[in-house]
Structure formats: structure tokens, C-alpha cells
Amino acid sequence: xxxxxxxxxxxxxxxxxxxxxxxxxxxxxxxxxxxxxxxxxxxxxxxxxxxxxxxxxxxxxxxxxxxxxxxxxxxxxxxxxxxxxxxxxxxxxxxxxxxxxxxxxxxxxxxxxxxxxxxxxxxxxxxxxxxxxxxxxxxxxxxxxxxxxxxxxxxxxxxxxxxxxxxxxxxxxxxxxxxxxxxxxxxxxxxxxxxxxxxxxxxxxxxxxxxxxxxxxxxxxxxxxxxxxxxxxxxxxxxxxxxxxxxxxxxxx
Length: 253
Known about the structure:
By secondary structure, the protein is α+β, with helices and mostly antiparallel strands. It is built from seven helices and seven strands; from the N terminus they run αβααββββαββααα. α2 (36-73) packs antiparallel against α3 (83-113).
């Protein structure tokens, strides 16, 4: 039943089924999703919200029947009987509650299903949202901090949030805005946060090593076809030799 509503709703809202991969080497893409226990937590919170709404509705209708309506309508002497008004309010309240149950459930479910966490060897892309689709792309060159966060509910369910902080770049997700030229994004509700953190840290290390003079980056240069290109490759190899020597000295120290 959920699938029958899902496709037409996403088509009507013009939500793409999945985000396009961020820039990166072919074959390096890893796709992560929120864990099933994250949905169970969201479902539990949805149930609490519905229960509190129902309790509030019952209290309000009980107050109307206990004499509150009589005091409210005392300011309108032209109203001879307020019983029909109370009946209409009761019907509207109960009808509205019943109608919003499947709608709010569908929204909660789609919010879980439409959370995408894409990672390549150069960058990552996060997307979530139904009515308002929020997408954030970060290059590893800008990432400054990674941390894992867990509240008591998440620890009980074995899930966590991976938080990333970067400098500059594009706009951040609304929930992660800091207002200071830094942008924060989250891998919400994942059950393998340490694995994702280690993967990103490994890509960061490789990228920074390459920036310092990765042997593979230089040794894979094509053979020179002219004197200018020969001089450029020779200069690059000299820089590589100096970096290797510097690393050796640091290693011995």
C-alpha cells in the first residue's frame, strides 16, 4: 500500500529517486543509508506524537462538554443552542486526527527512505527531505573535523550520527548551519558510523599525501613528447625526490 502512494507522490513533488554521484574516480562510489533501527526510532517518536495529539484532543473535547462551551458562548446571546457547534467541533477534530494519521506516517517513512549518503574518493554528497529537498556536497579538501555522536536512544539501538565540519564551500543543510563560514553535515542514524568515518579519513589521508607529492601521481606521468614537457616532468621528479628525502629524514628523526 505504501508503494502505491510513494511513486505518484514523489512524481508530483518532483523528487528524484536518488541523487547523482559526486565527483570521484570510477568505482570508488560507496552508498550508505540510514539504518533500520533509525526508522524504528522515528516510528516510536511518531507514535508518541500521535498519542500526545490524541490526548490533547480528548482533553479539549472533554472541556467543551464540561461547561467550557457554555462560558465561551455566553458572549453570544443570539446563539440559542451551542450543542450543534460542539458536535461539529468534535467531528472535525476526530476526522482531522484520523486523516493526518496515514499522511504523517507516509511523510515519516519517506523521510527515512529518502536519506542518501554518497561517498567517493574525492567528495561526498548528502541529501534528505521530501517537500524541501536539501542536498549538500563536500570535497575532502575542505573537511576539517569528523566526530561520532550518540544519544541514549541511539546507543540502545546501536546507531549513531557522524558529524562533518568543513570550511567554505556551498550552502549547508539547514540543521547544520553555523553562521561562520563553516558548514556542518550529518550521516544521521547509521549503524556503521566508525566504518564511514575511517573511510573518509583514509580518503583524506590519501588526498593530502597526493598533494604533498604522491609517488603514484608523479610516476604515472606520460613520457615527454617535447622539450617543454620533458622539462616539466623532470622538475616534477626533482620535487618528488626532495619530498622522499624529507620523509626519510623525518622518519629517521
